[in-house]
Design a protein that fits this description.
about 325 residues; alpha+beta; 3 domains; about 25% helix; globular
Length: about 325
């Protein structure tokens, strides 16, 4: 059996399809977020927004709601015994690269994957998530790609930067940036959001289709201890370690008198800051049993009012 990794999808007998958001099981359950529900009759996955997903579980399937003592929050979770299908992002990528495709969007995705593989990215270190993982794509769907090592992810970002400089891959235009910003419900203004995003080199337009790169480190240490919430907090601090800035969750070590790190569960603020930069952040302050404090950003998918922004340059 393939490992259950963040950004993989899990499906239940009721046709509910959840995206794994945390690699650490709790009480025999995998922490997830409900993303799709299969339509009665057609069986086609219907995408659910945050409100729709919460309402679906509360009203019809409360058994998939779970209070996580480690996160001190109510989350979605699927018992391992309830999983009827594991949609693996790695396996989906391998199937696309090794098989024949007739769908025009899938064919375009295969060309993008082969572009990266031809330039030294191992196919085994790539995954395909999002709507294309389960065949729920439309003509306007994006490509959501996953890398499974930090060096591989850094190489991908370098390839994107070089390809955009040479014109082989287009950078996002203003319309695409506006759509991304609006969909994220970001607490930052549009210009500030784009400034942070452009320097990440993890987005682009390939043959007119937007793509996004994410990192999952399968062997990353799962050392987020059980903590209690202390309430909403804002802080300013210098980032001392950005090694895990693109991890799931992302983590930034801080030079701060009381708070040791920022932990980010929303993709919006992954890779947001570099070591040596001063940041301003808003989120929920938590404290573990040892008295260590962390600021958590992304207590909900959109994380309204929570943010991470760079205030000062490196060095």
């Amino acid at each position: 059996m393939l490992a259950l990794l963040p950004r993989d999808f899990l499906e239940t007998a009721e046709g509910l399809i959840f995206a794994i958001v945390d690699p650490v099981p709790e009480d025999g359950k995998q922490l997830c977020w409900l993303r799709y529900a299969r339509e009665v009759g057609s069986g086609r996955p219907e995408k659910l927004d945050t409100a729709g997903a919460i309402a679906c579980l509360r009203e019809r399937f409360p058994r998939y709601l779970h209070h996580s003592p480690r996160l001190d929050a109510q989350v979605h979770a699927v018992p391992h015994a309830a999983i009827v299908r594991h949609h693996s992002a790695v396996a989906r990528c391998g199937a696309l690269l090794s098989g024949s495709v007739s769908d025009p969007l899938e064919a375009r995705l295969v060309r993008l994957l082969k572009y990266f593989v031809a330039r030294g990215v191992p196919a085994a270190e790539l995954g395909v998530t999002g709507s294309l993982l389960i065949g729920a794509q439309t003509a306007s769907s994006d490509f959501d790609l996953v890398a499974y090592s930090r060096p591989g992810f850094a190489r991908l970002r370098g390839l994107v930067a070089a390809a955009q400089a040479s014109g082989e891959i287009r950078a996002l235009d203003k319309a695409a940036w506006l759509e991304a910003w609006a969909r994220r419900g970001c607490a930052l203004g549009f210009d500030e959001y784009v400034w942070h995003e452009r320097r990440k080199h993890n987005k682009g337009l390939f043959e007119g289709t937007k793509f996004d790169l994410a990192l999952v480190v399968p062997d990353a240490p799962a050392d987020i201890a059980i903590a209690r919430k202390l309430g909403p907090t804002e802080l300013r601090a210098a980032v001392t370690d950005d090694t895990a800035a693109y991890d799931c969750p992302a983590r930034y070590r801080l030079d701060h008198a009381e708070v040791g790190e920022i932990v980010v569960f929303t993709h919006t603020y992954v890779g947001q800051a570099l070591r040596g930069e001063t940041v301003q952040a808003a989120g929920n302050l938590e404290e573990d049993a040892a008295g260590r404090r962390r600021l958590v950003i992304g207590s909900s998918r959109e994380a309204p009012g929570e943010y991470l922004r760079v205030l000062g340059p490196r060095g």
